[in-house]
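Re: [help] complex structure
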Amino acid sequence: MHRLSHIPPGTTVGLLGGSFDPPHEGHRAISLAALKRFGLDQLVWLVSPGNPLKAHPPALLERRIAAAQDLMDHPRVQISGIEAQLGTRYTAETLCILRKQHPGVRFVWLMGADNLAEFHRWKDWQQILETVPVGVLARPGDRISARLSPAARLYAPYRLKGGQSRLLARATTPAWCFVNVPMVNASSTEIRARGDWSAAQPR
Ligand SMILES: Nc1ncnc2c1ncn2[C@@H]1O[C@H](COP(=O)(O)OP(=O)(O)OP(=O)(O)O)[C@@H](O)[C@H]1O
Ligand SMILES: O=C(O)c1ccc[n+]([C@@H]2O[C@H](COP(=O)([O-])O)[C@@H](O)[C@H]2O)c1
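Output below.
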């Protein structure tokens, strides 16, 4: 069975799932902010085989992983294509397997504010919130829609304030925390639209 490497029991590990099509400075910035604000030991970029809610297929996984490794060369961050190896696309399924494989590890699901706004559309989203702490990072333009989202409203009683962010990883679930971090106005959609990544490349 495929596993994440170098994840010692007892550690706290942030999981940043994404299409990374392509990876950019926004991903890098929220990763560094998440390590610090949530006091995480490590972080894993889960490069997705394809977001189940996105109609267009992403660029080749190998190409996205290579670009991610170039961009995020950091001793506490690993880039992983494990979802493709496990055959999972849905986050709830991925988390279920990872938690079984690493019983002593405290995983935290990380996402930008835009994903919290849409979170109620994910498969078994309440199960995700009930089983792993969720850290949400501010993103330009999405802070208000995220705060007003169905998931944020329903789970409002379980939100840790920004000043308590370092408690998140070891908090009893459900627990989530929105942190206002310095924002980077970068998006893969915009980079693809410029043609710097998509043009003449295999998809
Ligand atoms: N600039 C950013 N600021 C904060 N969070 C971000 C930023 N860019 C991406 N994220 C978050 O990183 C994760 C992976 O994002 P993803 O790979 O979809 O990038 P994206 O720029 O949102 O791509 P696309 O434009 O194709 O939707 C998501 O949780 C997303 O919310
Ligand atoms: O599980 C789901 O239903 C689900 C729906 C939408 C997105 N996700 C995950 O959310 C992460 C961010 O996706 P993306 O495309 O916005 O980078 C990535 O890991 C996806 O697999 C998961």
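The CA atoms of residues 5 and 192 lie 31 Å apart.
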